[in-house]
Amino acid sequence: MDWLRDLWHTISTPEGLKGLIAWGGIPAMTAIVFAETGLLVGFFLPGDSLLFIAGFLASPAGGNLLPFLWLNLALMAAAIVGDTVGYWIGKRAGPPIFNRPNSRLFRRDHLLAARAFYEKHGGKTIVLARFVPIVRTFAPVVAGAASMDYRRFVAFNVFGGIGWVLSMTALGHWLGRLTWVQRNLEKAIVLVILVSTLPIVWHAWRARRAKVRHVEPVGPVDVGPP
Question: Does the pLDDT at position 223 exceed 50?
């Protein structure tokens, strides 16, 4: 279908996202960030790419088309409220949500992947998952279904929402001054997404290393004199 092809081009290419931002401004971006973080059907939305390009357009190199401060305040609020909605969706649905069948707007395997991520990283998932596409959509739902303490969730949610939005927009704002980035926005976005996952890789490596250290070596068995 032509409209699906046009939609995919809009949300998956720098040119499409620029056009979307020029058309809808901060309200459109706020809606996208909220939908990706708060609604199960928003897992396909381009959060990282959108934030990076928004930061670029808020820079002198991008024409100062957006107010950097208000941009960040609006998108931080959308990210925090979105995760809160996701938490209460999971809280109300409870554990049975993990047995919900697939549909056009729901992928059970994505939810199970988020649960595995949560079981591995605990409460820090709410922060770490912000930087992992798809997982960030389902992580708050998993936290709610797992009955994570709400006050603890709020702390991780606020910290993660502010950190994710500000880091991505600031990178777009700062890196946008580089000629290579201006000419290769798509490659720059992919690079930024890869770099943003490094804290997760580092955390997983440290956890694995600590686990290996706690395994006591088995020495030779003393069977006594022959």
Answer: no
